[in-house]
Amino acid sequence: MNKDFLNLGRQPIANSFLSSISKKSLKSEYFYNLIISFNTKSFLVSVKKPVNPKIQYTDKYAHRAAESETMRKAFRSAALKLFKRFKPKKIMEIGSNDGVFLKNFPRQKVVGVEPCKNLADITKKKFTTYPSFWNKILAKKILKKHSKIDLIFSANTISHIPNLSETFEAVFNILSDNGVLVIEDPSLSSVIKINSYDQFYDEHVYVFSTLAVENVVKKYKLRLFDVEKIDTHGGSLRYYICKNNSKYKKTKRLDLILSEERKTGLNNFSTFKKFANKVKNSKKKLVSLLKKIKKKNNKIISYGATYKSTTVFNYCKIDNRYLHYVTDTTLNKQGKFTPGTHIPIISPEIGFNESVDYAFLGAWNFKKEIINKEKKFLKRGGKFITHVPDIKILTK
Ligand code: JHZ
User: Fold this and answer.
1) Percent of the chain surpassing pLDDT 90
2) Up-side HSE of residue 87: CA atoms within 13 Å toward CB?
3) What pTM, to 2 d.p., does this model score?
4) For a substitution probing ligand 1, which of 47, 51, 68 has the most ligand atoms within 8 Å of its CB?
């Protein structure tokens, strides 16, 4: 049974950065209600009514995984580690984005799957890329040209696909007998612990726990045999999944993480009700802090036009009454406006200057990288504001 625990209100598509805020374009802006539910049987946490993927993953898709140094390094080290452990002959990535993971392997060994045409167009020059959604029809098509796959990697993508049966059945069909599916996604345990409610938005149809992944894959003749904690995106998990009859044994760290999650209460609805109360408090505190700063005539901007901040801004109703603009290094976000709240997005070269007093860390998951890069800002008295894990002002 699905039980709702969090209502984040009326939200736009997190990646629908607007090119203009003319009456016409505002009229066509799409909104939906972002309600989060918990399944008392499988322990799966999901968006109650997922948005149609066809309006999310278009040829204007904004996110570039290679945009941060942290992620470039993380994907390189994942690639080397997985290659050493599984020695795959054929590697496929579901959601290959700008190729930041697959570019670490020889091109003849890899296949990319990427439904956003603008991204697939970039990588098809470097390796075979199918510009399609992942499903059984595509798996069949790939198998006509390639051998079965020994390593399927998918970072921040499986949690985005509403239809889990289609996803895992297609994986089963294309995976070699001792092949491994490796999934990385933000961990539910971290979301609860650090109150990062902004990990909930339209694309994150699921925020997985190990408990839920173990239950879900069982239905598709697959088996979770290992899991690993990783630092990315504020705390993620890397799940290792194989076919039921394959050679891999369940690891000790999987048992350990499963029991940690039971202790955290990820199998218990009351945990999520408590979390929802913390989220409401976080909203109150953030808005009151911004109001206080504005009263003193200080200039506040936001650092990083993340999808996550779409949730924060729309849930807390933060618009350009509070924030002058948002800075972001991604070229195709610059010159646009934030979804739902319509705050201008500009490049850091232009916007991150002497006039800024406070910067809200939209990209809080890159706090270390950003603080390291923006020492001058802090030195001259500039301050960062973060809402994770608590509302806090960060000074030098
Ligand atoms: P970042 C996206 O979410 C979408 P977002 C997606 N659904 C998902 O699951 C996660 O990624 C993984 C900018 N930036 O990675 C670059 C600076 O401007 O937290 C990015 O636009 N300066 C697929 O959008 C944004 O911030 C910097 O110094 O929440 C970060 O976005 C740095 C480090 C980043 O993901």
Assistant:
1) 99
2) 0
3) 0.96
4) 68
